[in-house]
Write a structure and sequence with these properties.
The complex is a heterodimer. Chain A is α/β, with parallel strands linked by helices. Chain A has 9 helices and 5 strands, in the order H-H-H-H-E-H-E-H-E-H-E-H-E-H. Chain B is an alpha/beta fold. The chains are: A alpha/beta, B alpha/beta.
């Protein structure tokens, strides 16, 4: 614990220190501090997109890495994601106004027959924490839910989750339907869930299997970067 | 107050054997994924009797009722949130019926699994609501004749406390285990030492506490050694999975053989567990082998080392169990934390 004299006045920090402080405050899940600092950076004339990427998203990367490495656990990650979302709420309308590039949009749900949603909820929160827009389909989704929503929302990513070995094969049905309808290449398909592994992900034709929520975020970012590069060519 | 059946058995015996898998067994009986196993208490009572009888015939002293997902939070997913009392009561009644025909004392343990919701401040579930839901379930299990409540697969300290409070409100003795599946800790980050300490802070501590499910049998025993190292005198429960689930030709397969689970059971006892059972993938065949091994193999003088556990049961899933100074909790270069008044 810091002493009283360690009190930091956010508005007195220069940009570099303030951003570093925001990374720490995200790590500690301090929502009000993140809101305050987000507003300070905006007042100093930072582009909303720069606040998002340099202050919030890169701060959440540290959280994600430490979660992956077993240093942070779910409670800390959820608090960090909540703090991030509070900053994001301030930025969101401004990002839309300024036509800033979007991080990406994901449609996510557990597959038909599967009602276990904790893993899916964690991925959803961490994706939002990383700046993605997430459309949560909830549990027990037939193939139409994924495809219709992805089209309607103009999503970049379809995420499917299953906890049971008896439900995971349904992921292949969704992917096969995308192929049959000629839509497979429009979407990045990510799959996850306790009984899955990389081999299964490959076998059913997903773009990637994601071991946990932190890996899901990293993988989504990688694929979005590739997608943007392709568009630029 | 008359002593409950579990405490009595613990006084009379060095160790007790609990049951094996519920989910695995029910899927083998034709349960469809997506359906609530608890519905079978009403729709397929003979299959539930067969599930219980499988454990009793294999020599279990304790078996868990088919009520793991019996809180309103879980049953809501099947639009059965109004049937909490009924489904739990019948789960226990069927258990009572099987146990009372056993010809020896068999403990009917009313299974209570997690709500599946995330508690405040991280999530929306309040402590009061969690207590309310567990209490509703506990009353159903009590009405059906359960001897004890059996809280299992919990990952959050507050959820464990809420279940304890529910047991207190229902006036029932209870046991409670957590699932240590994330680098030696629970999903919410609790270590074995932290659970051992938490248990002693409760106004109505459980008869026994411990670990269930998680990763494999090896990890589970490392967790048991963590409980023992905390110096707790309270009976420790070990309910490990029969190996690690593998996806083979479209079907789940646990790689733990009956022979491996027999080794696991003896090692669990020698580590210091008093109540030993299996979890996912553990069939009556495994239980028969476990019972035979517990009865015939002499207790070792020394506690098994981590190396012995690995040699007999296979590698751990993570380098550390999160209790030491190594790995987890590594110090990050931190700026001064901002204090708020």
């Amino acid at each position: 614990m810091a002493d009283e004299e360690d009190e930091i006045i956010l508005s007195e920090l220069d940009d570099e220190d303030l951003v570093a402080q925001m990374h720490d405050d995200l790590y500690d899940g301090l929502k009000e501090e993140i809101e305050e600092a987000t507003n300070i950076l905006l007042e100093r004339g930072w582009e909303p997109y720069r606040v998002l990427t340099e202050a919030l998203v890169s701060g959440m990367k540290v959280v994600g890495d430490d979660f992956r490495d077993g240093i942070l656990f779910v409670p800390e990650v959820l608090l960090a994601a909540n703090a991030m979302k509070a900053g994001m709420a301030i930025l969101k309308p401004l990002l839309a106004e300024t036509g800033a590039p979007k991080v990406g949009k994901m449609v996510i749900g557990t597959v038909k027959g599967d009602i276990h949603d904790i893993g899916k909820n964690l991925v959803s929160m961490m994706m939002e924490g990383a700046g993605f827009e997430v459309v949560d389909l909830g549990i027990n989704n037939p193939v139409e839910n994924y495809i219709e929503t992805a089209e309607k929302e103009d999503a970049d990513i379809i995420g499917m989750s299953a906890l049971l070995t008896t439900t995971m094969p349904y992921m292949k049905i969704v992917i096969d339907t995308l192929i049959a309808e000629g839509k497979r290449d429009k979407y990045i398909v990510l799959v996850g869930g306790a009984p899955l592994n990389e081999e299964f992900g490959r076998a059913i034709g997903a773009d990637a299997y994601c071991r946990d929520a932190a890996v899901a975020v990293e993988t989504a970012k990688e694929f979005m970067a590739r997608k943007h590069n392709q568009m630029a060519v | 107050m008359t002593q409950d059946a579990l405490s009595r058995l613990l006084e009379e015996n060095d160790w007790l054997m609990a049951d094996g898998a519920t989910g695995t067994t029910l899927f083998n009986m034709g349960l469809t994924s997506g359906d609530a196993p608890e519905m079978w208490n009403v729709e397929e009572p003979d299959k539930i009797r067969a599930l219980y009888k499988g454990a009793v015939d294999a020599g279990s002293d304790i078996f868990l009722t088919n009520s793991f997902g019996g809180t309103a939070a879980r049953l809501k997913l099947h639009n059965a949130q109004d049937r909490v009392h009924e489904l739990n009561r019948i789960a226990a009644e069927l258990g009572r019926e099987v146990a009372d025909k056993a010809g020896r004392t068999v403990v009917v343990a009313g299974s209570m699994g997690p709500t599946g919701e995330i508690m405040e401040p991280m999530g929306p579930l309040t402590f009061e609501r969690a207590v309310e839901m567990f209490h509703e379930q506990a009353e159903g299990l009590k009405a059906g004749g359960a001897d004890v409540l059996w809280v299992e697969t919990i990952s959050a300290g507050d959820e464990y406390r809420a279940a304890a409070r529910a047991a207190e409100l229902a006036g029932m003795p209870w046991c409670g285990t957590m699932s240590f599946d994330t680098a030696g800790r629970t999903m919410m980050g609790l270590t074995s030492a932290e659970l051992a300490a938490l248990v002693e802070t409760l106004p109505n501590p459980p008869i026994g506490y411990g670990a269930n499910c998680g990763v494999g049998a090896s990890d589970l025993l490392r967790t048991v050694l963590g409980f023992v190292a905390s110096g707790s005198e309270r009976p420790i429960i070990a309910k490990g999975n029969a190996g690690i689930p593998k996806y083979v030709h479209g079907h789940i397969h646990y790689d733990g053989t009956p022979e491996l689970m027999a080794d696991y059971a003896v090692l669990a006892r020698d580590c210091g567990a008093r109540i030993i059972g299996g979890c996912c993938g553990t069939t009556p065949d495994h239980l028969v082998a476990m019972r035979a091994a517990l009865e015939t193999r002499p207790r070792s003088d020394a506690k098994p080392t981590l190396d012995e556990i690995v040699a007999r049961l296979g590698a751990f899933s993570s380098a550390s169990d999160g209790t030491g100074d190594d790995g987890a909790g590594a110090v990050r270069e931190r700026r001064g934390r901002r204090r708020r008044d």
